[in-house]
Design a protein that fits this description.
Elements (H helix, E strand, L loop, with lengths): L13 E7 L10 H8 L6 E6 L1 H7 L23 H6 L5 H7 L10 E5 L2 H5 L6 E6 L4 H4 L3 H15 L6 E5 L9 H19 L22 E7 L3 H26 L7 H14 L3 E5 L1 H7 L2 H7 L7 E8 L8 E5 L1 E5 L19 H15 L5 E11 L11 E3 L5 E3 L7 H11 L7 E6 L3 H7 L4 E5 L2 H13 L4 E3 L17 E2 L7 H10 L7 E5 L5 E2 L5 E2 L4 H11 L3
Parallel strand pairs: 1-6, 2-4, 2-5, 5-6, 9-11, 9-14, 10-11, 13-17, 14-18, 15-16
Antiparallel strand pairs: 3-4, 7-8, 8-11, 12-13, 15-18, 19-20
Helix pairs in contact: 7-8, 8-9, 9-13, 12-14, 13-18, 14-17, 16-18
Bound molecules: zinc ion.
């Protein structure tokens, strides 16, 4: 049996900063002296963005023919812009490329220049320069996260998978008027995108090498360069981005692991291994304790499985002892056959991803611990398998939840809400400031929103706003769906307090309405990630979502 070897995890890529106290990359004045420092760095590649105005400036077209109207106002004619300043060290390589038409300044166009003897003669130790066209977007990139992501992805794709091991990223060149907060946010996003690009499941730890041929991405280090103005923003961004990517990687690993490895016990062992590695405190309850707590709904789901259920509680206590915690609850069905209401066989292997809610809350709290976030966060993970057997729960069975409400189980494949409802009752004891549950809950959510947005359900307008904003800024978006009392009608049972399904219409909404019945005592939101947690088909794999959303939410709003 494979056990979690967290100490042997390979961080697929390292992030750091290289700061030049004397340099200023944000002003056009003295750019040449700033680049004089930069070009002496030994690196496989420098990544720098340029605008149409920069290109026009390089080609001496700023005044008049062909030059864009919105040239940088502070530029002088000739050798003052960043392209020109850099080109002075590169023996005119950029100008030649521009004159040959290789620099189109089109949005996300990338041009890779290689070192030659003239670079070496100038003391240039960079092996390559990757120029990224900002196109028309430069005015916007500071504000438009999607525009920036398009540029960053294009650059990262060029960096990865080849001979480049280390790259310098000149963050300031991507923004028209760099302000340190925005700069930090975009740097963090760059790390998130780079982490996604270089993630390889099979090389993360020796025990996960199921394919002989898996090799890690050659790109090993991404280094953010800047001057004194950007120093503090970039340092903070690197700390946050590193924690975020570690958390996402963990969530992806757990999601991608086969269901014969990633069992409820494996999830519990992973949590315990994280507690050894960080300041996280972990507690795991077994079946006896769940029985004593009266978790009749959770236990009904686990009945058909040979594997014991686990109830995992992870605490990050970074805030004041009196500060109310944010509680994250993650659905951890390590394999969902549907139980007696058996699923069709097609793509059933993907039901190993039915624990992605658990994986994402574990990844998020791990990231919070790595960052030493100054707030209290608790992750709660009910985990078990949903299997058919002679002991399995039948459709028609009535069980009593921890809350005291009785549930008629009309469909054993609607099991996620059955384990979540007891966890949601359990977390009342933490007197939370907010509870967010995360679950691959309904196929109906995939029909409603596809793989673009996660479904968001909440009656708390503040929480809706904060989660929506956090998602947008992290490229991990949500779309709000209704939670009206009218939908509760569909959950009526002739024999118990509530039925566990409400039929096909509005299937995601009735699932959320079911959970709502167990969350009346605190501020609560539910995220349905059935469409966003993993990809199917040729690119099959866990996305690590919604770790970026949750992490960003904690960093931005969690301490309020
Ligand atoms: Zn199910």
């Amino acid at each position: 049996m494979i056990k979690p070897h967290l100490f042997h995890y390979i961080m697929t890529i390292q992030f750091s900063t290289k700061l030049f106290a004397q340099a200023d990359f944000t002003a056009t004045k003295n750019l040449k002296s700033a680049f004089a420092l930069l070009i002496k760095q030994e690196s496989d590649c420098l990544v720098m963005a340029y605008s149409k105005a920069d290109l026009a400036d390089l080609q001496g077209k700023t005044n008049g023919q062909g030059g864009p109207k919105k040239a940088r106002q502070t530029l002088n004619l000739g050798l003052a812009g960043p392209l020109a300043a850099l080109d002075a060290f590169l023996g005119g390589a950029i100008l030649r490329a521009a004159n040959d038409g290789d620099l189109a300044a089109k949005e996300a166009a990338v041009t890779l220049l290689r070192s030659d003897p003239s670079w070496l003669a100038q003391g240039v130790k960079l092996k390559r320069v990757l120029l990224v066209g900002l196109g028309e977007t430069q005015q916007k990139t500071g504000g438009d996260i999607l525009a920036y992501a398009k540029l960053a992805r294009a650059a990262i794709k060029t960096l990865s998978g080849g001979a480049i091991e280390t790259a310098l990223w000149l963050m300031a060149s991507f923004m028209e008027k760099p302000n340190s907060q925005r700069l930090g946010e975009l740097a963090r996003l760059t790390m998130q995108l780079a982490g996604d690009q270089v993630y390889r499941f099979g090389v993360r730890q020796p025990a996960m090498r199921f394919k002989v041929k898996d090799t890690p991405d050659p790109l090993k280090a991404l280094i953010f360069v800047g001057g004194s103005k950007e120093a503090s923003a970039l340092k903070l961004a690197v700390a946050e981005g590193t924690a975020l990517v570690e958390g996402m990687n963990l969530a992806k690993d757990l999601g991608n692991l086969p269901p014969n490895v990633c069992t409820p016990a494996y999830l519990a062992q992973t949590a315990q291994a994280l507690a050894k590695k960080t300041t996280l405190k972990v507690e795991v309850l077994g079946r006896k304790q769940m029985e004593a707590l009266g978790m009749g709904s959770f236990l009904a789901v686990t009945q058909g499985s040979e594997l014991p259920p686990q109830f995992i509680i992870m605490r990050h206590s970074g805030g004041k002892a009196t500060a109310a915690p944010t509680v994250l609850v993650g659905k951890g069905i390590t394999f969902d056959t549907g139980g007696i209401s058996l699923k069709p066989g097609d793509a059933m292997d993907e039901m190993k991803y039915d624990m992605c809610g658990a994986a994402s809350v574990m990844g998020t709290i791990y990231a919070a611990a790595l960052l030493k976030l100054k707030q209290n966060v608790i992750a709660v993970i009910p985990t078990c398998e949903n299997m058919p057997s002679g002991k399995a729960t039948r459709p028609g069975d009535i069980v009593k939840s921890m809350s005291g409400q009785t549930i008629e189980i009309l469909n054993t494949d609607a099991e996620g809400r059955l384990i979540l409802c007891d966890a949601l009752t359990y977390v009342e004891r933490f007197k939370p400031r907010a509870v967010i549950d995360v679950a691959t809950l309904t196929g109906a959510c995939i029909i409603a929103l596809g793989s673009v947005h996660s479904g968001l359900f909440s009656d708390d307008e503040n929480l809706v706003k904060e989660l929506s904003e956090s998602g947008k800024a992290a490229l991990d978006t949500v779309w709000r769906l209704p939670l009206d009392t009218a939908y509760q009608e569909q959950l009526k049972s002739n024999f118990a307090d509530v039925a566990n399904i409400g039929g096909r219409p509005a299937g995601s909404v009735t699932a959320a309405c079911f959970l709502k019945r167990f969350t009346e005592k605190y501020c609560w939101a539910h995220l349905d990630i059935a469409g966003t947690a993993w990809k199917s088909g040729a690119m099959k794999g866990s996305t690590g979502r919604p770790v970026p959303l949750l992490f960003n939410y904690l960093v931005t709003y969690g301490a309020r």
